[in-house]
Structures are given as C-alpha cells and as structure tokens.
Specification:
Mean pLDDT: 75
Oligomer: single chain
Distance between the termini: 74 Å
Helix content: 40-55%
Number of domains: 2
Shape: flat
Low-confidence stretches: 122-150
Radius of gyration: 24 Å
Structural class: mainly alpha
Largest sheet: 3 strands, antiparallel
C-alpha cells in the first residue's frame, strides 16, 4: 500500500498501540487524552514536553475529568511530571528532537537557496533550533538556540537576531526551575521574545541567545526579590491577615499572638 503524501506534521503510532500494557492500565478515557497529547506534541517543537496549561485548556478541551485522566496517565507511566508540565513516555525514542529538526530545516533552506541562487544568512552560523514557523507557540516556546562552537574554538560565531521561533527546551525549563524558581518562565520568555523582536540595530544581535535568556530571567528573579508591595497589594495582605485571625480574641497587637 502506497504511503499517502504528508500534508503536515504527524506522529508515529503503532497499529497495535492499544494493546500496550500501560495503555490498558490507564483506561480508554486516559487513552484518548494520550493520543491527543501525541498529536499536539507533533504539531509544535516540543521534545515531548507539554505544559500543564496546554494540556488542560487545549488538548483536554471538550473532555470531562481531565485531571483524573492525567492522573491515570501518570500512574501508568505514560506521562512523567516535570516543572510546569509533563513529558510523554519514549517521545524522543520515536521522534526527532527539536535540535535535529532545526538542523534538517537549515540544510533544506541551504539546498533551496543554492537552487535559487539566494544567499541565506545564519544557515551555517546557527543551524540549531531555527524553525520555519514564524509564531511563538502558545506557551510552548520550546527551543534550542544554543550554537555549536567551531572546531578548535578559533573562530567566534557571529551575532544574529533572535531565532524565529525562539523555542524553550526542556533543558532550559529545568535550568529555570533550579536557578530562578520564583520566576514565571512562560510569561518572562514571552516578554523577552517581544522585547528583542521589537529591538533594532546592533544591540538586537547576540552571539548566544540562550545565555541572553538566562540573564533576562536572572534579572526578573532579582526584581521579584526586591519587589515592594503596592498600596493595593498591602491592602490585600492586610485583608488576608484579618481573615486569618477572624473569630479569635486578640488582646494585644503583638505579632506573636496574631500569628499563633
């Protein structure tokens, strides 16, 4: 039987996948969610990682008892929990990594450029993690933008503008969870991308975008630690403290008595 021409991304799924012990253990409701997860992961640069928000609001849309289905997939070992989301079992065993896809796309652009006689910048300088898609994925933002240093380390890589899309990899998320745990990684990354997309001139070109991203998150972490509450935030804190002591007899304003 001839293989149909691909019209977009697809995910390899064995014809007898439903006989897998883990699938049987998870049950039919969780099975449907898992198949949806695989389809979603194939449609974005993911390395097998899906955020909790994506899973509940996009992949799980229209399904009942999504938290229970997720729990079943975790218990069956089909999903593994990570900071901010989940990783599908054996994803990278059967699918190309984001880094590999980036290299293949770069080679394809080079080939097309040679055929048309057009010079494509960045195709050799920064082959990893540059995708054809122009939009930042909705909270996915998974990407490997680290550049491979030249052999011998003699020549330095040239500065480039921020890759499009800028992909947030699992490794980057793990770094953020360990180094800047108080930072909202997805929100901070979206701000980072918007800022450098809008920037112009020599300042907008960097040799190492992952290092630039790490420094950005470090500054966000410092802002969070040095943040002084606004009058509204102080009022909310006061109200919360009032609710905490509601119903108790307070004889003094000593902090120890209020907190006890």
């Amino acid at each position: 039987m001839a293989r149909p021409k691909s019209k977009g991304p697809y995910v390899p799924l064995a014809a007898n996948y439903y006989m897998d012990d883990a699938i049987l253990e998870a049950g039919p409701e969780a099975e449907l969610l898992f198949v949806r997860i695989l389809s979603f992961l194939a449609s974005v640069p993911s390395d097998g990682f899906i955020t909790d928000r994506q899973l509940r609001t996009i992949v799980g849309l229209g399904l009942r008892n999504v938290p229970r289905r997720i729990e079943s997939l975790l218990n069956a070992g089909l999903l593994a929990a990570q900071s901010g989301g989940y990783v599908a079992r054996s994803w990278q065993k059967w699918n190309r990594s984001t880094e590999e896809i980036g290299r293949l796309l770069a080679k394809d652009r080079e080939r097309k450029a040679q055929d048309s006689g057009v010079v494509v910048p960045n195709s050799k300088r920064n082959p990893d993690g540059i995708q054809e898609d122009s939009a930042l994925q909705s909270s996915t933002e998974q990407s490997s933008t680290e550049q491979t240093p030249p052999k011998g380390g003699a020549a330095r890589s040239r500065a480039t503008r921020i890759p499009e899309p800028f992909i947030l990899t699992t490794g980057m998320r793990e770094w953020a969870a360990a180094e800047v745990p108080g930072v909202d990684v997805d929100r901070s990354t979206r701000t980072f991308v918007d800022y450098w997309r809008a920037e112009s001139g020599a300042k907008a070109a960097k040799r190492d975008w992952v290092a630039t991203w790490r420094n950005w998150l470090r500054r966000d972490a410092e802002k969070t630690s040095n943040h002084r509450p606004t009058p509204t935030e102080r009022a909310m804190q006061t109200a919360a403290a009032g609710r905490a002591v509601a119903g108790r007899t307070i004889t003094t304003l000593e902090p120890k008595e209020i907190a006890s």
